[in-house]
Amino acid sequence: MPRLPESLPDGIYAASLTPVTGRLEIDHQLLTAHCRWLLANGCSGIVLLGTTGEANSFSVAERMAALDAVVDGGIAPTRLLVGTGCAALSDTVALTQHALSREVGGVLVLPPFYYKGVSDAGIFSYFEALIERVADERLNIYLYHIPQMSMVPFSPALFGRLVDMFPRQIAGIKDSGGSWDHMKALRERYPGLRVFPGSETFLRDMLLLGGPGCISATANINSRLAARVYQQFDRPAAQEMQEALNQLRGIILNYPVIPALKQVMAAITAQPGWRYLRPPLMPLSEPDAARLMRELEAVDFPAQF
Question: Which residue, of 6, 46, 94, 156, is most buried by count of CB atoms within 10 Å of its CB?
């Protein structure tokens, strides 16, 4: 009988970048080292192969191999929330079954995102089929609400129906929609579910509501300070630290986010290979990269982060 997974810990989750080589293949060694660094520098867990990780630029086989490399490299699978959502139901099933076979703490699942304007009934049917086909009591699904990318939102009615119908399988949501009112309403209406904001901008506010933490792309570079906010959120100094997090994120958001974060990683690790991305994403131009680093130096990065 499969062993039930441990609950994912609360705290700061980095939506991990995925390093690639000059041949545009996933650099398993660097990815594993990065995961190890994140866990040693404030992260409670890691989202592997989500939006920031360029997941939808990689095949099912590449995504499976990356997870295998990270787990085989010594990263505790119970600290991993793995992106498995695809446009094709069969691909989502395969990735989810593989993730569960590696005993990960949970899976982060996008709605089927190619067809736009689909009904809530159609999205519900997709998740119903996913749960039935996976048929594994270890399944902990975190719904991935990111309508600005997927163009397919989880409406409040759909979210409620999924939670009511599958209370054992739906463990929570990553809400990257950007609306604090939406996150707050979910947290208050479903106190038993884990609502993770998709940005550390909302970290302290969510913690004050009793929420679990946050999942953030910029936690790749600011995880130490974010962890201090998590640990000290109810102290007066936490607001000043929260404002520093917001300022850093604001700088990054002035650029294409994934290329900007990879540029920062290349600079702080002295590993130029970090600048590679899988097309269609492209590295920052040299002028933009130089400007970004000047702006970060002006806010005392990386020292205070």
Answer: 46
